[in-house]
Amino acid sequence: MHDGVPIGEAARASGVKVPTIRYYEQVGLLPEPPRTEGNRRLYGGRHLRRLAFIRHARELGFEVEAIRTLLDLQDNPGQSCSPADSIARLRLKDVEERIARLTALKAELQRMIDGCSHGTVADCRVIEVLADHGACASPTHR
Questions:
Q1: C-alpha torsion sign, points 9, 47, 31, 38
Q2: Is 0.90 surpassed by the pTM of this model?
Q3: 53 CB-side CA count, 13 A
Q4: In the chain, domain spans
Q5: Would you place residue 2 in the very low, low, confident or very high pLDDT band (cuts 50, 70, 90)?
Q6: Whose CA, among 22, 60, 112, 131, lies 20 to 30 Å from 1?
Q7: What does pLDDT average to over the chain?
Q8: What is the pLDDT of residue 115?
Q9: Which DSSP symbol is given to 22?
């Protein structure tokens, strides 16, 4: 007899969907769990903790390869945390760049709305800007 929970219960407990759990096994982020005599997967506490780690890392926007490295660091705690720091710094840089693009996008949308005369489509600033990207105040909102 094996200890553990079936994949559906592991999904509910971890907040990770069943196909995603299978994907994580397939790409090597999650070790394959033991199986029952009926060939059903049984996930133990170690699997559930690892799924929680992966889910949280994905929520923070880390890519699969970064998560793989972070999991390796977690599995081998005697290593330097420098790689984890580098991964987090790169993710922060990506977030800051995205915020800058979104801020430019917000400003452009506000400019379009503010320039709208609420007249006819022929005078609509929104339509004009959407038809000609050169009319945008900032090319960085893409």
A1: negative
A2: no
A3: 20
A4: 1-79, 81-142
A5: low
A6: 22
A7: 89
A8: 75
A9: H
Q: Which two tokens stand for residue 15?
A: 């907040």
> Contact, 112 vs 141, CB < 8 A?
no
For residue 56, give both structure tokens: 């949280």
Strand partners, 35: 41
C-alpha span between 110 and 114 (Å, rounded): 6
Binning the chain into helix, strand and coil, the percentages to the nearest 5 are 65, 5, 30
- Picking from 75, 85, 35, the residue whose alpha carbon sits closest to that of residue 53 is 75
Predicted pLDDT of residue 111: 82
Name beta bridge partners: 62.
none
- Which one of 3.30.1330.10, 3.40.50.300, 3.20.80.10, 1.10.1660.10 gives the CATH number of domain 1-79? 1.10.1660.10
Residue 24: Cβ within 10 Å count:
21
